[in-house]
Amino acid sequence: SRPAAGEPAADNSDFKGVWVYIEQFQGKARNVGHELLGEGRKLADAMGEELAAVVIGAGVEPLLQELFASGADKVYLLEGSEYRHYSTDAYTIALTDLINVYKPSVILIGATNDGRDLGPRVACRVGTGLTADCTNLGIDEESGLVAWTRPAFGGNIMATILCPNHRPQMGTVRPNVFKRPEPNTTRSGEVIRVASKVKAEDIRTRLIELLTIGETAACNLDEAQFIVAGGRGMGKPENFALIEELANVLGGAVGASRAAVDAGWKPAIHQVGQTGKTVAPKVYIACGISGAIQHLAGMSTSDIIIAINKDADAPIFKFADFGIVGDVLEILPVLIEEFKKL
Ligand code: FAD
Q1: Ligand 1, from 289, 296, 335: best to mutate by most atoms within 8 Å of Cβ?
Q2: pTM metric for this prediction
Q3: DSSP state letters, 191-227
Q4: Is the ipTM of this complex over 0.90?
């Protein structure tokens, strides 16, 4: 049995290794898995332990090489038709069993919709804690434990959390806070194929049909290469149609500042910033956004930042690679027409 919170430290010496859960969709690994392999590599090296990737799915064998190239020493592969689509029951059972058998010391999971569903369930079943939605990771010098950092109290403080008594040390980490490592295609490693213990009666929900609704692409801020974001300077919710149109022409996603979200102009799922999403697209177009520090915290690692603002002294221009001083309502229609021609 595991000690309850506050009990003296248990002997955790049989827990070894850093694991990264690789989320995949239709056989393609989400970027966040690679980002966490890069960060997991640093933790594993500092701890003198191995780095393993865990892949659950159907037809995911082709992922092996890219996971080694991103830094994994080992891959635990759980293949089966019951894993074709993400299922809370099947994936929770699979990951819980794997932890109970192989006893990793640390597990990193992307703070995506699926990761946020899976992580806490697994943590509860194996009797450990979980630090959710981390924005930084490190090693606590004194204890050698993983130091998980996350915004707390509405983003007003950054809390660093340790997990002294229980194993594994688990956390979900926001996509895009770490860079995907450069692939090293000369690397290879060990593959451990794990037989499924999931029984049909364990799965209480089934995916009947996968529908792609209009908003989906526009909401996918995590993986978008182009993001067009609007702020209070858009004036009213109807004007967000211009943001949506430009995002659509560029094949990108729609972002929003907290001011726009708080005003009810866009749902919170679009919010970029300290208390919203962290994004790192190739191009981020900020429209009528002043550039408050809390907004910058979520988008400043974008490759190219373009700002449109009618105030030439707006702070966003200090961080933008390209700036357009003018009224968004006049400039956006021109940009939409020009990009349509490309
Ligand atoms: P404003 O600051 O009001 O800026 C509007 C801009 O639009 C101005 O620069 C103005 O010149 C320009 N403008 C106006 N009309 C036009 C026009 N017609 N054409 C062109 N430009 C125009 N904010 C976030 O975004 N994300 C977060 O996650 C977040 N987390 C926070 C957490 C905490 C704890 C706190 C205290 C704050 C947080 N904020 C966050 C809020 C943040 O401090 C700012 O208040 C917010 O980002 C401002 O949004 P904005 O830039 O849209 O609005």
Answers
A1: 289
A2: 0.82
A3: EEE------GGG-----------THHHHH-TTT-SEE
A4: yes
